[in-house]
Amino acid sequence: MEKSELLRCDQDHLIHPLHNRQQHENGHVWVKGEGAELIDVDGKRYLDVLAGLWNVVAGHGRTELSDAAARQMSELAYCSGYAGSSNRQAIELAQRLAGMTYPSINRFFFTSGGGEATDSSVKTARFYWKLQGKPNKTKVISRQWGYHGVTLAAMSATGISGYWPMFEPRVAGFSHISSPDSYRYTSSDNTPQGLAAANELEQAILREDPDSVAMFIAEPIQGAGGVLIPPDDYFPRIREICDHYDVLLVADEVITGFGRTGKMFALDHWGIEPDIIQFAKAITSGYFPFGGIGVNDTIAETLDSGQAVWMHAYTYSAHPVGCAVALRNLDIIENENFPQQAADKGAFLLQKLTAALSDHPHVGDVRGKGLMCAVEVVQDKTTREEFDPAEQVGQRLHAAAQRRGLFSRLRGDVFLIAPPVVISTEQINHLVEALTESIKEILG
Ligand SMILES: Cc1ncc(COP(=O)(O)O)c(C=O)c1O
Fold first, then answer.
1. Potential cystine with 250: which of 85, 173, 217, 298 (Cβ 3.0-4.6 Å)?
2. pLDDT tens by residue, 29-66
3. At 198, which helix (H) or strand (E)?
4. Hey, whose CA ends up nearest to atom 1 of ligand 1?
5. 280 lines ligand 1 (CB under 6 A)
6. Which tens digit of pLDDT belongs to each residue from 319-333?
7. Whether residue 119 has its Cβ less than 6 Å from ligand 1
8. In this model, does residue 440 exceed pLDDT 90?
């Protein structure tokens, strides 16, 4: 089929994530990936600026990963992970993660992706508090602009309000505090920005009643919300508040896990540990749908206590093929030192973006940590006022970037940049040049 025919057929038969028929009229039909590039069915190459959806850290076309999948499929394509069944790859992966993640996290449950990981955290937190004799601790606090997936519970934790209206009512007991957006958050008194944003958690816990709050969930760096990097004093204060009020801290590391930010796991930037960690995406570099949660030793002991069965499960939990791909991918991440590569390449990228763009009258902010960066364009640089959505600046910038061979996503007028960790120096230079030209084309 020619591209036009494929797109017509797509329109007739597919429902897409965030389905919007118009966006697919001139969409891409990807047929191949090579390193940090994607190739459309019409033969045009694009730099995969968001590494798929933040996940393809090892880049496209890694035959080590396809070989690992093929080998596992021919040996044991599937077995259940339900109680009474296990598989060698799942056991090895859990053991490996215990050595890689935060020291207090040593027990893992596997899912098919990030949204299922969020649901698993919420249910585990509620289960835990029930067995601790605090059955009323069921509420979940998260943050505006946080993204945790779109199953009904995950959507209720997600703080990007555009996801809600057509699916209301949300699950009861979920509320949101401000995000510690270093560019936009302003403290109402003289409290430093990060502490003020963290103190909102304390106020929310007191407002809800500490005896009713089970957990606080946060991405160490908010991804889909626009690469929002918290001030350094934010997470240490969050940890203090969670400890003080007996609220579990859940780190959603679905994007930040496995090296992208320059550390293997991102709360290491601030020297704290979560009670539950969520991961997905980079664990298999997107070569197999996979995710999960890791819980600390106290929660694991409660699970093991035998007082109740944790009635939570997925058919594809601990899928042997996913585990085999994850294990091979973790070899790549460790052998090729992805955290260091992300730190070095990210610093270079940020320095080039800043030099090229920070003086532009409509570039409000250029930010990044490791290979998780963003460029935010604004109507007024002094007041930080956003463009009128009717001007469709983001959409026009997306189109201009694509004409220059860049494919990414935007959150409003924030251009998101999180390429595969294997991106080359020439590709980073091309990315910065093409994005700079695109911004000049749209905004002068
Ligand atoms: C931080 C975070 N959590 C959860 C999810 C949801 O993952 P999935 O789309 O695999 O359900 C995402 C997806 O982008 C994410 O970025």
1. 217
2. 999 999 999 999 999 999 999 999 999 999 999 999 99
3. helix 193-208
4. 254
5. yes
6. 999 999 999 999 999
7. no
8. yes
